[in-house]
Design a protein that fits this description.
Layout: E1 2-9, H1 15-35, H2 40-54, E2 57-66, E3 69-76, H3 86-102, E4 107-114, H4 123-130, E5 139-146, E6 166-171, E7 180-185, E8 189-191, E9 195-203, E10 209-216, E11 222-227, E12 232-237, E13 242-249, E14 263-271, E15 275-281, H5 288-296, E16 301-307, H6 330-336, E17 343-347, H7 357-368, E18 372-376, E19 398-405, E20 412-413, H8 415-419, E21 437-442, E22 446-450, E23 456-463, E24 466-471, H9 477-480, H10 489-500, E25 510-516, E26 519-525, E27 535-537, E28 543-544, E29 549-552, E30 555-561, E31 566-572, E32 575-581, H11 587-590, H12 600-606, E33 610-613, E34 621-625, E35 636-640, E36 645-654, H13 658-677
Parallel strand pairs: 3-4, 3-5, 5-6, 6-33, 8-14, 15-16, 15-17, 17-18, 18-24, 34-35
Antiparallel strand pairs: 1-2, 2-36, 7-9, 9-12, 10-11, 10-13, 13-14, 19-21, 20-22, 22-23, 23-24, 25-26, 26-30, 27-28, 27-31, 29-30, 31-32
Helix pairs in contact: 1-2, 2-13
Length: 678
């Protein structure tokens, strides 16, 4: 305990009123002096005694207990501290500082080790929370042991000014640098088939041109060189409706702290701007109206439908001006606008000189380059005018044997059909009969529907970049009319069209991956009997190999716990998928250099200092400094001695009791009266 005597003033009327009264008295006294100039000194004494009495002076005797000043050490344990010797340097410095400060009775030490929160390092929040219950007049200062990459420094530093001098001990080699890629700007959505613009930047300490590779949805990578340190526009075609994940990568540079920030990604939503369909009906038939009504019922479909009623070789004497028919616009459709269609449907078409072999070869090329074709076979498909005797034969999954089977046939799903996304939902259903089909031999692709004796009825195939579907009967319209109980006509055709359009949810060979917090889930669709092994690459470059769990025919799921934010890549049997867990490049890995630049404004504002520790055992000395003294030097850091205390007992002795004050005032007024009476 320490005994202290001090002079105390506790006005009887409150300080604001006291000062107002004092000013009023002084002004009145000045007016009196100017006006009368008599006995002004004795009147001034009377006023002074009055104000002194109102201030209630007293001699206070106190017993004070000194309180230690509170200091804080914040140790950065975030992911970026794992590079080089940063953790070892920080641990050694922390141990020495903690031992020294805990041995100082004038310091009450508080310590916290801050790990990565979300996608960044939040040391300032940890410091404020640690000091939240400490009176500001007891805070000696704080020491941050970090690599300098702090992500919660506020724009307004005024609220941190009362935390005392904040010092930063920067661990790691300040000369170490790193190549990193940043996605500056990315669109949220775009039209399928259009090119979306992404702005990418690669920072490299070596400068110059830097290689960049990019891919969408785990597909084929493209490469180009861009200038380091400059924002560069990259245009990528949106492949499909729904989420598209675009991955940008740059290879390892000459100076690297980690490869975790050499990759970034973005998710862009693909939106269809309408589906353009060309439907060519070879001859009037019972299914023509059904096809047209089905396609026109979808508002997203822009349908162009032609029914060939009058082939070129048909001659009659009717004048052209009296005919409602028009010539089939072969050149316009198959030469000028072919690539503008998303899907071409040949419904019971036969070669009758309307579409030439050259144009049919163009259709085959159109499919190979990414187009879609649906062929609905009629009786003519088995004859000499069949499309199977044209350049389309090379892309058709099934070729006719020349026989037409005119008997009741019950369509059934094949083993592939039970697994395929087009028909898997139809498993276990009984459908109505058809009355005719074209006997064919399935050479390629996947047969999804067969007759009861195994003959193919519905087959699909991938051709180059495009897709083909083939229906080997002209009787599917019976399902639409409800014959013999009907069948899933509209569902089958819609799902087939969406598969031809490469809708991701109907892809029969697909690997999907979803990252949800601390779980990464992979889903595999395959027509194979067994699932290929799964390999998942984590953001830090390590690999996981979880086991598949079979959910049903051709459907598998695997889950694996994870603890990292960033981009995950999966591979299974030649299929690839990517998923983002949080941001693609967490802020924790966006910049990895050991630097004090980020914390410099904070240390300048609070009077602290920045010290570089690039080896184990290195640290500045600690000094206790006064309230207004400098708190940092070349090789030392200062913590303020606040001199806080708690009053344990107190006695007060009034120095000007009320009666004494009244007597002094009356005495001064008496002298003033006598002086003025002379």
């Amino acid at each position: 305990m320490i005994e202290v005597s001090r002079l105390s003033f506790d006005p009887l009327i409150g300080w604001p009123l006291f000062w107002a009264l004092g000013v009023l008295c002084i002004v009145s006294l000045l007016v009196y002096v100017i006006a009368f100039r008599k006995a002004w000194l004795t009147r001034a004494l009377a006023v002074a005694f009055g104000l002194l009495a109102l201030s209630n002076p007293a001699l206070v005797e106190e017993e004070r207990e000194p309180l230690p000043s509170v200091a804080a050490i914040i140790v950065d344990r975030s992911d970026s501290m794992e590079f080089g010797d940063r953790t070892a340097i920080a641990t050694a410095a922390f141990g020495e500082l903690q031992a020294e400060l805990e041995a100082n009775p004038a310091i009450d030490l508080r310590v916290i080790e801050a790990e990565t929160v979300g996608d960044g390092t939040r040391l300032i929040g940890a410091l404020e929370g640690l000091m939240a219950d400490v009176p500001r007049d007891r805070i000696a200062g704080a020491i941050l042991i970090t690599d300098g990459q702090v992500h919660d420094l506020p724009d307004d530093l005024s609220r941190l000014q009362d935390l005392g001098p904040v010092h930063a001990l920067i661990t790691g080699d300040p000369s170490a640098s790193d190549r990193r890629i940043t996605l500056v700007e990315a669109p949220n959505f775009d039209i399928v088939g259009d090119e979306a613009e992404f702005i990418v930047r690669i920072d490299d300490p070596e400068g110059g041109t830097v290689p960049l590779t990019f891919a969408i949805n785990g597909g084929r990578s493209e490469a180009r060189y861009i200038e380091a340190g400059e924002d560069t526009s990259i245009f990528i075609e949106v492949e499909r409706r729904g989420d598209n994940i675009v991955v940008f990568e740059t290879p390892e540079g000459e100076q690297e702290l980690t490869l975790a920030n050499n990759r970034t990604a973005a998710t862009i939503s693909g939106v269809r701007d309408g589906l353009r369909v060309l439907l060519v009906t070879g001859r009037p038939n019972a299914s023509g109206r059904v096809w047209r009504d089905l396609l026109k019922s979808d508002p997203s479909v822009d349908l162009v439908h032609f029914t060939i009623l009058r082939p070129p070789y048909k001659r009659d004497m009717t004048p052209l001006e009296e005919m409602a028919l028009i010539a089939f616009p072969t050149e316009e459709l198959f030469e000028e606008k072919l690539d503008g269609f998303d899907l071409i449907i040949f419904d019971q078409y036969e070669r009758r000189g309307v579409i030439t072999m050259g144009y049919l070869a163009d259709v085959a090329r159109y499919v190979d380059e990414g187009g879609a074709l649906l062929v609905v076979a009629g009786e003519s498909f088995a004859g000499p005018a069949s499309l199977a005797r044209t350049p389309l034969a090379g892309i058709l999954p099934a070729l006719p044997t020349g026989e037409i089977i005119a008997e009741d046939v019950m369509p059934t799903l094949s083993d592939e059909g039970m697994r395929h996304t087009i028909t898997e939902d139809f498993t276990g259903r009984r459908w109505g009969k058809w009355l005719r089909y074209i006997q064919a031999r399935a050479d390629t692709g996947d047969v999804l529907m067969r007759t009861e004796n195994g003959a193919p009825l519905f087959a699909v195939d991938r051709v180059g970049e495009g897709r083909v579907a083939q229906l080997l009967s002209d009787q599917i319209w019976l399902w639409a009319r409800g014959y013999d109980g009907g069948g899933p006509f509209s569902d089958l055709i819609r799902r087939s069209v969406h598969w031809l359009m490469k809708e991701p949810e109907l892809d029969e060979r697909q690997l999907k991956m979803v990252a949800q917090g601390d779980i990464v889930r992979a889903n595999l669709r395959t027509l194979a009997d067994r699932a290929a092994p799964l390999i998942i690459e984590t953001p830090d470059g390590s690999f996981l190999e979880p086991e598949w769990r079979e959910n049903g025919p051709g459907s598998y799921t695997a889950e694996v716990p994870v603890d990292q934010l960033g981009l995950y890549r999966a591979q299974s049997g030649g299929l690839e998928a990517v998923a983002l867990n949080g941001p693609a490049n967490p802020r924790e890995f966006a910049a990895l250099e050991a630097t004090g630049d980020v914390l410099q404004p904070l240390t300048d504002r609070t009077g602290g200092g920045i010290f570089t520790l690039d080896s184990v055992g290195e640290r500045p000395d600690i000094r206790m400094v006064g309230r207004r003294a400098d708190a940092s030097g070349g090789n030392w850091l200062g913590l303020r001695e606040r001199g806080a205390y708690a009053v344990r007992s107190s006695t007060s002795l009034p120095l000007l009791p009320g009666l004494l004050a009244i007597g002094l005032i009356l005495l001064a007024l008496l002298f003033a009266w006598r002086r003025e009476g002379r």
